Amino acid sequence: MGVLLATVVGLFVAIWTVGATGWGEIVSVAARMGLGGLALVCLYSLGVFAVLGAAWAAAAGEPAARVGVFAWGRLVREAASDLLPFSQIGGIVVSIQTLIALGVPRARANASFLVDLTTEMASQLLFTLFGLALMASILMGDEAAMLRPVILGGTGAMIAFILLAFFGQRALLSLTRKLATRFLPGSAAAMVEIERELGTLYGRHGGVALAFLLNLAAWTMSGALAWLILTLVGVPISFWTALSLESLIFTLRSIAFAIPGGIGVQEAAYALIGPLFGLSPEAALALALAKRARDLALALPTLVVWQAIEARALVRPVTPPAS
To answer: What InterPro entries does this protein map onto (predicted)?
Structure first.
């Protein structure tokens, strides 16, 4: 019941926070896309989540029939991160608990998240480097020089995160297990099981490679979404320019992972970088607000359904064991 109450309070806080950025502007941009355009953007985004779910399922070594479970977990994760004041970390915890509630073993849910996160970050680095190569051919002279410190710093931070995520997983789990043994003896066995499962999943090289490729496809699809949105609102931009722009935006948002929903970061990034790629300040803001409208259109129903499922689980009668 405490989780349900906290989520309801969080929803009100999130709605107020997003409203502070301007409900009127978000609604105005959504109107420019039209109901059909917004529906198309949402359907396209659901396709991206399907690919992300397939990547997580591949990392977990689960069959294709379970992709929907992992896609739902990924959708809940993004919804919680976008609307609830949890930051990305809170969204991760919620998504793992969602998988466990849907029958994925606890150790596998936790270990597969680590594998999926590593392949997701590695594929984002490749996508960012691809975006930098495109940027070099699109931007010239002073424009590229203005972005160089930001991009180099962001890329360096991403590389550090990837190295830490890959090489530090076992060390972190080992330290956590030792602390659990000392202070929480009951949880030590669970940590050992997660360590064992992590080794098993990394041993499935085909699954890890497939997770990497699917995450790379998801990054590319997410980048192409900017081109689709700008086309719908009547702003001409080349497909490759949109991919390059989005690769830089994603990098900045990844650095600001602790900020719930990237509130303010996304809008500031588009305002700063968009004009360098030929977008007017109005068009850059329209793109940022259109994405915020998409987030609301997907995240609100997702959280309502998720909470309905959680509430039903809380009130479900417990069947007494047979005598």
So the answer is: L-PG_synthase/AglD
Model confidence at 234, pLDDT cuts 50, 70, 90, reads confident
DSSP-derived secondary structure letter, 233: T
Q: How far apart are CA 151 and CA 252, in angstroms?
A: 8
Contact 29, 290 (CB under 8 A): yes
Per the structure, the complete domain to which residue 24 belongs is given by 2-315
Residue 117 in this model has a pLDDT that exceeds 50:
yes
**Phi-psi region for residue 261, left (φ > 0), alpha (ψ -120 to 50) or beta?**
left
Task: Give the separation between CA 192 and CA 200, rounded to whole angstroms.
Answer: 13
- Which token pair is 260? 């719930």
DSSP string, 84-122: STTHHHHHHHHHHHHHHHTT--HHHHHHHHHHHHHHHHH
Q: Within a 10 A sphere around the Cβ of 208, how many other Cβ atoms?
A: 20
Judge whether 36 lies within some domain. yes
Residue 175 lies in a domain: yes
- For residue 178, is it within any domain? yes
- Give the residue carrying structure tokens 């330290």: 175
How confident is the model over 52-87, as pLDDT tens digits? 999 999 999 999 999 999 999 999 999 888 776 555
Whether 27 maps to a domain, the answer reads: yes
Q: How many domains does the chain have?
A: 1
Burial of 63 (0-12, 13-18, 19+ CB in 10 A): exposed
In this structure, the number of other CB atoms found within 10 A of the CB of residue 205 comes to: 8
Report d(CA 62, CA 40) in Å as an integer.
30
